[in-house]
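If your schedule permits, I should be very grateful for your opinion on a structural question. Thank you for your consideration; the sequence and its tokens are set out here:

===
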Amino acid sequence: MARPPIERAVSGTPGITLFKPAGIPARDLEQLRLGVDELEAIRLVDLEGLSHEQAAEVMGVSRQTVGRVLERARARVAEALIEGKAILIGGGQYRVEPRQLHCLVCDELWVGEADPDNPPTCPKCGSEKVGVCWGNGQQCRGHGFGRGRGAGRGQG
């Protein structure tokens, strides 16, 4: 009997759950499902620029699991883009965990949700320059703005 999958920690559920090619009604499109955990893996590695090891720590799974989840997610996104299919986001093995947030102006730390639709503001100084602390809190500086791999090195 197979072991049940371990739930992956995600920072929140997406506000937008359907992406589709413009000009074609959704009812006329084949839909591919992208799990919330798969979207989180894409966000952490491709958008935030974390390594597979760092993403694994954040999601509470092994590096190999992150690699498999990411490979599956990228394949689904590529198929939808190339073949003109809709992407329906939902489901998957996940649990929502708030993250520690960090003000880049006054260095305040607090726990909250990193919601891209409603960016957090610092409770101490009101700044919107807020980053996300990934993993055990040791990785607070320089992450959380979604600048991806190579940011600050002339590649982002």
Observations:
- The radius of gyration is 17 Å.
- Helices lie at 36-47, 52-59, 63-83.
- Residues 133 and 140 are 4 Å apart (CA to CA).
- Strands lie at 8-10, 18-19, 31-34, 86-89, 94-96, 99-103, 109-112, 130-133.
